[in-house]
Amino acid sequence: xxxxxxxxxxxxxxxxxxxxxxxxxxxxxxxxxxxxxxxxxxxxxxxxxxxxxxxxxxxxxxxxxxxxxxxxxxxxxxxxxxxxxxxxxxxxxxxxxxxxxxxxxxxxxxxxxxxxxxxxxxxxxxxxxxxxxxxxxxxxxxxxxxxxxxxxxxxxxxxxxxxxxxxxxxxxxxxxxxxxxxxxxxxxxxxxxxxxxxxxxxxxxxxxxxxxxxxxxxxxxxxxxxxxxxxxxxxxxxxxxxxxxxxxxxxxxxxxxxxxxxxxxxxxx
Length: 269
Fold this sequence. Notes:
Largest sheet: 6 strands, antiparallel
Oligomer: single chain
Distance between the termini: 72 Å
Number of helices: 4
Number of domains: 3
Number of strands: 16
CATH superfamily of the largest domain: PPM-type phosphatase domain
CATH architecture of the largest domain: 4-Layer Sandwich
């Protein structure tokens, strides 16, 4: 007798967004490591500060050693790590059905959390407790609770110049030999040698693949560099003020931007 198997359509998406804000008005905040803990609802993440969990301290955002505020938004199991020369900080936490708070909401919605081949799933199907999509798991129960939600965690961190931010999906750390520390260390090492964020991201992805990852692999790398002197802006200002523009850099100026005043060509450096 023919048999058919019907299961819910599973189309989920995890996401992590890091908004980098240059702080212009200094203000004092309480921090633990790089994480800002004032008024935080999401838990303070365990951070790897020279081998120990950092203590609570006061920091001035907008000061020379804390010029950037990072707004970190995550849902699902995409990840972000902040790497400094000596430390690394996990800026996100996966939304797993086995987390105590997540499990409570799931069970209140009438669903179950079970382990399938060592991976916790909602109703034996979905591995995330929060995600974009998966509407079958977002139907409200009789008490209004839903097994899955699309509410992200939002955390705040401070950063300084030359810090490295790495965004990556869970496929990067699928191999047992690749963890958050490996990702942070690889990114710092390759970037210090190449000064190339694209090559650095590629190296992290290749590491995961070569170590046996069979999941999708995505990596984005950003480094917070000191703002260089804006030669192009100075040339443009000189042109609009009627001054004779002076070349600030000896570069190949074959790429030019034509302005509308005096047929002046602005070199693009």
